[in-house]
Design goal:
By secondary structure, the protein is of the alpha+beta class. Helices cover about 35% and strands about 25% of the residues. Helix 3 crosses helix 4.
């Protein structure tokens, strides 16, 4: 499990599911492979945040302010991993998790679904189709909020002015350019070659 969580840009979706042993989580990779975990979605999110040294409650507060959403705000955990909440199942028992997360960068299409109760099918990279209970308009709205949250998220830790002045060759313009190059490089590395 830790290998998949460490390679967070390989995650396409984190979905709650029912197993014979109880409530668990399926992590879908960008290549379409799925890994079943015995933990709940919330635990997987906490582990992802801990591996990235991110305070999840502070991140949620920041994205709530940027998106003006109180509930179900997207989570920009890394440049290649912006988790978008979507309702993927009906609860069997009160208190069960119904919300899964899809990676904004792994979504290829959003289409209406004719199979009830699901109203939308989200196609992820790796040609994985994920049925969603929400309408296509709601899913597209969540994706737009994810784009907004990704641009509002801090790209790097902020250094104090005194510390910045002591760094040799520090130039704010070059630092911003370096961050953009690193993000572009990360996107290129995460792209799957098309055959």
């Amino acid at each position: 499990m830790s290998e998949l969580l460490n390679a967070c840009t390989r995650i396409a979706a984190i979905i709650p599911c029912y197993q014979p042993t109880g409530d668990s989580t399926t992590v879908i990779a960008v290549d379409g492979s799925a890994t079943s975990l015995t933990t709940r979605v919330r635990t997987v999110l906490l582990r992802l945040a801990r591996l990235r040294a991110i305070d999840l409650s502070a991140l949620r507060t920041r994205t709530r302010a940027a998106t003006e959403r109180r509930n179900l705000a997207p989570l920009p955990l890394a440049p290649g991993l912006v988790l978008v909440p979507v309702k993927v199942r009906q609860p069997r028992v009160a208190g069960d998790t119904t919300t899964g997360y899809i990676n904004f960068h792994a979504v290829t299409t959003v289409a209406a679904n004719k199979n009830k109760p699901y109203q939308t099918t989200v196609t992820l990279s790796g040609k994985t189709e994920l049925p969603v209970l929400w309408t296509p308009a709601t899913v597209n709205r969540q994706l737009a909020l994810a784009r907004l949250a990704a641009t509002a998220a801090p790209a790097r830790p902020v250094l104090s002015a005194a510390l910045q002045a002591t760094l040799p060759g520090y130039d704010p313009a070059l630092l911003n350019l370096a961050v953009k190059v690193a993000e572009l490089f990360n996107e290129i590395v995460c792209m799957k070659p098309r055959l």
